[in-house]
Design goal:
- This protein has 347 residues and is an alpha/beta fold.
- It is built from 13 helices and 8 strands.
- An 8-stranded parallel β-sheet has the order 1-8-7-6-5-4-3-2.
- β7, α9 and β8 form a beta-alpha-beta unit.
- α1 packs across α10 and α3 packs parallel to α5.
- The radius of gyration is 20 Å and the shape is globular.
Length: 347
């Protein structure tokens, strides 16, 4: 059997952190790695066209720490040369894998044929998998960013972000997608993807049309898992998982190789351990997360941190008023003043 890279070394059960734009950035993944590390993590997605054209700001989504490994870079887009370049960049940055987003339902993404829009374009989707795999192979065989004619300012930014000499290993390519476009077509869609032998397919149990409404169709995910049996491609389910216990039950019930936990991690980075954090735990991690955010993402405005603060602070008398104050914070110092006072009041 062909090696699937880090995927072959993951212990059972495989329970990973689902990539979520605006949520699973480097500071949050660092907090997750500290509080209860999942089997693997995936970055926020990065637009290949923007990156290939020289948008160095997009590389902030590719920041990571060694504590997060195995860590996979997720990219999206349909321009072939841009996807090749972006996959090559991800390999040079030392990621353990490359994931192609074929599941984002956002209109601005899907209407261009990217993300979940690719479900309606299987031939394009298969070609993109081949291109990403070729980039991974070329990297392992010595392809440089300069030889690939990637823009000099991107090359400079990549080397600043990851100055170490690249480890010329062959990294696997995976896909994250949905069960259909406007109706479930998972049997045909998964069959098409399997023709290109991705290392893994993560399948969200909703269609593009559903966005995040309704319930995830785990029967469809189970049917997809059955199709993948014996193919060499792992099938991971995604959608509405509420706990580690729930994750293990779904793995057993639906025959998937693993799962991704998404929205249930909001304000609960402990979810992968099953720990029930008390208010003190939440306050301490909110303050630490705020500090990490400023340290790792100085180029981003602090308002990106506020949603995490709202998720951490809940379930106690007066939580609503505290959240209102936190929604006006502009620094970790502001957060410490508000939550430090809350801790003192609770003693």
């Amino acid at each position: 059997m062909v090696s699937r890279g880090f995927w072959d070394a993951l212990p059972d059960p495989i329970i990973g952190l689902s990539p979520m734009d605006g949520v699973t950035d480097a500071p949050f993944r660092s907090i997750v790695a500290k509080t209860g590390k999942p089997s693997f993590m995936i970055t926020e997605f990065v637009n290949v066209e923007g990156l290939s054209r020289g948008a160095t700001s997009l590389l902030s989504a590719f920041k990571y720490s060694e504590a997060e490994r195995p860590i996979v870079a997720q990219i999206y887009g349909i321009e072939e040369d841009s996807l090749y370049n972006s996959a090559l960049i991800a390999a040079h940055l030392g990621f353990d894998g490359i994931d192609l987003n074929m599941g984002c339902p956002a209109r601005k993404v899907a209407r261009r044929g990217s993300g979940a829009g690719l479900i309606a374009m299987p031939e394009t989707a298969k070609k993109l998998i081949r291109i990403a795999k070729r980039a991974a192979e070329d990297f392992a065989e010595g392809m440089t960013l300069e030889k690939a004619k990637i823009r000099p300012k991107i090359i400079k930014a990549v080397k600043l972000l990851h100055p170490e000499k690249p480890d010329r290993r062959l990294i696997p390519v995976s896909v994250k997608t949905r069960i259909g476009y406007d109706a479930p077509t998972h049997k045909k869609w998964i069959g098409e993807l399997l023709k290109e032998s991705p290392a893994a397919i993560s399948l969200h149990g909703r269609t593009l049309k559903q966005m995040y409404s309704g319930r995830a169709d785990w029967n469809a995910i189970g049917e997809a898992a059955e199709i993948c049996k014996g193919s060499g491609t792992l099938l991971l389910g995604n959608g509405d998982i509420t706990s580690v216990e729930d994750a293990k039950e779904k793995i057993k019930t639906y025959g998937v190789d693993g799962v991704l936990i998404g929205r249930a991690v909001y304000g609960n980075p402990w979810i992968f351990t099953g720990k029930e954090p008390d208010l003190s735990d939440r306050i301490q991690i909110a303050i630490e997360h705020s500090r990490l955010y400023e340290e790792i993402m100085p180029e981003r405005h602090f308002w990106n941190m506020r949603k995490h603060l709202a998720w951490y602070v809940k379930g106690f008398p007066g939580a609503g008023e505290v959240r209102k104050k936190l929604m006006k914070t502009d620094s970790s110092k502001d957060v410490e003043e508000i939550l430090g006072g809350l801790m003192e009041a609770g003693k």
